[in-house]
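Example for tutorial group B:
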């Protein structure tokens, strides 16, 4: 059964807000599935959706960081699957899912990582100073989940290890203590990540990464792992020529489906913890554009200098624009570009010249 059957076509692109969901997808759900679990700083409702009747309870939340919307789109697709009673019979019978599609609706509206008080909600797990943090904790306490899925986006700079492959999807089983011991909850999360990596390698070989597991009890994932609940960090990353992250959205959907299937069918223990550590740790090796031999443009640079450019995401009239910025000029050995141009190659130089905004930026770097 193909992904296209369940993709929610009413919500696309990078700018996804509560208002988008209310105008389209949210209103299509039965009201009995939806609860208001809190309000944001600016008074926007924080909704949860509960579906299924099984004993295995799974809590997931997306857009804790308002400008990280890819996993929200995948959650909508997942809900479309769950509404198909025949296709989702096993999951609905074995599991109860509680989903918060947008935890930080103010940040989503402003397209910022932080909430309206300029607080990173993923650094507020201990003090609970923000209403959004309190809402999530209250849901956690009341629902008492068996598993938690913490859904995020990551920047385009990440590679899957020391390779020229982007980390299109990354995972982490957060530490539960400063010693980073493999506690029972961490172990279960690791096994689930191995299950997801196994299926993703068939779709995006060598493009799955693993985050560093430094412990921080102010982070929500670490805090819930400390409570003995297997918790997984999902990070939706870059796929080639996919700045709107519609392909990555599909990969997150596939990962979520495999995670839930493993829980529902009691196959988690079939996956080896040691395989978790074979997933390469993320490195920061990518620029959005890498320009080689820019000296031929009459720039006052060394022969081996390259120019590394990354896009800054800017919200302009409800559209996210990608504005190029020069990040570094130097040898940049061991770094890669999602797009690479060698100015000695006349055809590549023509292509680069057609990117007027980028070329102007490079010329201004004289």
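The residue assignment follows.
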């Amino acid at each position: 059964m193909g992904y296209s059957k369940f993709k929610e076509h009413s919500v696309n692109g990078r700018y996804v807000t509560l208002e988008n969901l209310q105008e389209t997808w949210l209103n299509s759900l039965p009201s009995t599935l939806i609860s208001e679990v809190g309000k944001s700083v600016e008074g926007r409702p924080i909704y949860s959706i509960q579906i299924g009747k099984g004993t295995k309870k799974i809590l997931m939340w997306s857009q804790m960081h308002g400008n990280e919307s890819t996993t929200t789109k995948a959650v909508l697709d997942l809900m479309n699957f769950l509404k198909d009673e025949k296709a989702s019979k096993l999951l609905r019978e074995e599991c109860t899912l509680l989903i918060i599609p947008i935890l930080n609706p103010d940040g989503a509206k402003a397209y910022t990582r932080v909430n309206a008080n300029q607080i990173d909600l993923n650094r507020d797990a201990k003090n609970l100073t923000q209403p959004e943090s309190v809402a999530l904790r209250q849901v956690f306490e009341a629902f008492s989940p068996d598993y938690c899925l913490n859904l995020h986006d990551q920047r385009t700079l990440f590679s899957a290890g020391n390779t020229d492959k982007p980390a299109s999807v990354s995972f982490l089983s957060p530490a539960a203590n400063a010693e980073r011991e493999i506690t029972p909850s961490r172990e279960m999360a690791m096994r689930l990540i191995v299950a997801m990596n196994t299926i993703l390698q068939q779709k995006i070989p060598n493009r799955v990464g693993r985050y560093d597991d430094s412990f921080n009890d102010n982070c929500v994932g670490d805090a819930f792992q400390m409570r003995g609940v297997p918790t997984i960090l999902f990070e939706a990353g870059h796929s080639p020529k996919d700045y709107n992250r519609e392909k990555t959205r599909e990969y997150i959907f596939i990962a979520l489906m495999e995670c839930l299937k493993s829980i529902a069918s009691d196959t988690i223990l079939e996956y080896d913890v040691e395989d978790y550590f074979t997933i390469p740790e993320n490195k920061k090796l990518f620029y959005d554009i890498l320009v080689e031999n820019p000296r031929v443009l009459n720039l006052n640079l060394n022969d081996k200098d390259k120019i590394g450019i990354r896009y800054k995401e800017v919200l302009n009239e409800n559209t996210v624009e990608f504005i190029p910025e020069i990040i570094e000029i130097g040898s940049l050995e061991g770094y890669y570009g999602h797009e690479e141009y060698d100015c000695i190659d006349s055809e590549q130089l023509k292509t680069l010249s057609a990117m007027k905004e980028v070329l102007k930026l490079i010329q201004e770097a004289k």
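The domain at 3-283 is CATH 3.40.630.10 (Aminopeptidase). Compare this with the pattern of hydrophobic and polar residues in the output above.
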